């Protein structure tokens, strides 16, 4: 199933509950929460208190994308705040297997993220333990960047590996996913689509989400 994970990074934080409700009315089924620490990425956003606030206003799964160093230190706090899925960057996890286990031990779905410069092959050993792999299609840190087409081959390769290894992890894509790029990512094999700036826009959020999903699902007729 193709799902829209709308990134609240592009929303109006002063009206967060309404923004989430609009994106959900447009068909969004996952809330993507971009956590940035100002070290791993050159920007700061929010942490577990934001997850707790979201948990109080939506039943949708909360997909926390941790762009932070030492993610192990924060996993218990995200679990307590109500996160459903946690993705950690391969680039900051010297003991990635242990970190993914820790996420699972806290009752959340573990996932791993790779930057544009990180090869898919660095993940082969942990693919059996992840709920999804997140392929970055921009360098993380900011919303509204241009889609990097190099992500497409990585998505396709992951889909091949999944088949060859007999696994069922999902493939998520993040960065620059918009009305003009969504078809390519779905064709390549992504089924969790993160989008921020292509969704949130005053008065148009619901319509933007609906149209993005329509374009995505049109690529795979069986899903319409
Ligand atoms: C970027 C974040 C993304 C971001 C996507 O570092 O991980 O989730 O919100 O924003 P858009 O959809 O605007 O590229
Ligand atoms: Zn993200």
Please characterize this protein's 3D structure.
- By secondary structure, the protein is of the alpha/beta class.
- The chain has helices at residues 16-25, 48-55, 75-81, 96-105, 150-165, 182-188, 205-218, and strands spanning 3-7, 30-36, 62-67, 85-89, 109-114, 132-136, 170-174, 192-195.
- The termini are close together.
- Residues 7, 9-10, 32, 34, 65, 138, 140-145, 174-177, 194-198 line the site of D-xylitol-5-phosphate.
- D-xylitol-5-phosphate binds at residues 7, 9-10, 32, 34, 65, 138, 140-145, 174-177, 194-198.
Q: Descriptors for this entry?
A:
eight-stranded parallel β-barrel; about 220 residues; 7 helices; binds D-xylitol-5-phosphate; alpha/beta; about 30% helix; binds zinc ion
The percentage of residues in β strands lies in: 15-25%
> How would a textbook summarize the main sheet?
8 strands, parallel, barrel
Structural class category: alpha/beta
Number of helices: 7
Distinct small molecules? D-xylitol-5-phosphate, zinc ion
The main sheet orders its strands as 1-2-3-4-5-6-7-8
Helix content: 25-40%
Q: Quick one: how many beta strands?
A: 8
Low-confidence stretches: none
The oligomeric state is single chain
Order of helices and strands: EHEHEHEHEEHEHEH
Rg on CA atoms, Å: 16 Å
